[in-house]
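REQUEST FORM: STRUCTURE PREDICTION
Request ID: SP-0412
Submitted by: Lab K.M.
Chain count: 1
Length (residues): 220
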Amino acid sequence: MFLRVLFLLLLAMNVGVGSWLYFAPKTAEHEVPATDYGITRLELLAERERPGDAASAELAEAPAASDAPEQCRSIGPFATQADVRAALNKLTPSVRRIQFREARTTQPRGYWVFVPAMASREQALGVARQLSAKGVRDYYVVTAGDQQNTISLGLFREQANAERRRAEIAGLGFSPQMLQRTEDLPVYWIDFSEDPQRPVAWRAQLPDLIDLKEQSVNCF
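STATUS: Completed
RESULT:
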C-alpha cells in the first residue's frame, strides 16, 4: 500500500514540474557581442560602401555625348577604284565617318594634227596626192563621221611633237591645224568626318598618292 502511494506521489510531482517548465514565461535571449567591449568591430570590404560607387554607377548609366563638334574634308581625285579601296582601309580607323563618291573629269588625250575638211571627197583626195608628191607618207583621208574629208596627219601624246609635225607640213605650203583631244573619265573622291581637335594626318597615311588634293565639304 505504501509503495503505491509513493508511486502516485512521484508521478504527480513529475507532472507538475513538466507543466511548470512548459507554461512558464521565456526570458529574453541576449545577443553575445562578436568582440569584447572597447574593441572596434571588424568590417568586411564587401560590406563597406565605397564613396565613389554611387557616382560611378551614375557615370556608367549616363548617355554618351552626341553633339561633339566635327569637321568634314574631301580628298582626291583617285584615278581607280583600287586606289579608293586602299585609302578607305587605311583611313577608316582614324575617322568618325567615311564615304566615297564618283565624279567626272575631262582629261587631255593627246594632240591631233590635220588639214581641215574639204568640200568634197575629190578635193580631199587631190590634197592627199599633193602631200604624197612632196614626200609625206603618214596621213589618211577620213571617209566617214563628223570629220569626213579631213586629212589626218597624226596623233601625238606630247604637244611639242605635234607642234613639230604642224610646222613641217606648213613648210610644204599647206595649212594644217592642231587640236588638243580630250576625254571624259570617272574619278573618285573620299569624304570623311573628323574631330577638329584631332585632325587626321591623311597624307602621312597615303604617302604614295602625292597628287591628291584636299577641300572642305559640308558634313554628311
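NOTES: Residues 68 and 161 are 57 Å apart (CA to CA).
Reviewed by: T.R.
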